Amino acid sequence: MSVLNPLHDLSALQARIAHCTGLVVVCYCAAWCDTCTQYRGDFERLAQRLPQHAFVWVDIEDSPELLGEEDVENFPTLAIQGAEGNRFFGTLLPYISHLERLVEQLQDDAGHAVVAGPPLLRSAVA
């Protein structure tokens, strides 16, 4: 599966999230961020390797409503969401292997949810 962008692919994103039984993995970045630019290719390749999950790229300046009241101070900031809520929200070092291990861990831990974090994309883009 490819990485979806709510600014450019809203209808595809809505359809993908509606039918996704896996996690929703959201990367919050900015177009001016060099780290984000470098990270994006790895994020897209990870999305191809893990098609059971929905991968979403959100530019925080173009779609701030998808971040809610949360602030992004460092990049990349990621949210990993399950049907029951946010399972992870925070900054990771820009090594895709860190995200891959976290996704693998969280996909097997269905009961893990955190309270803090951005609104669930399943609701925000519906």
UniProtKB/TrEMBL annotation:
Q: Which Pfam families match?
A: Thioredoxin
Query: Quick one: signal sequence residues?
Result: none
Gene source species: Candidimonas nitroreducens
Record-linked InterPro entries: Thioredoxin-like_sf, Thioredoxin_domain
Q: Which residues are in the Thioredoxin domain?
A: 13-81
Instruction: Report what the protein is called.
Output: Thiol reductase thioredoxin
Task: Mark the transmembrane ranges.
Answer: none
- Top-level division of the source organism's lineage: Bacteria
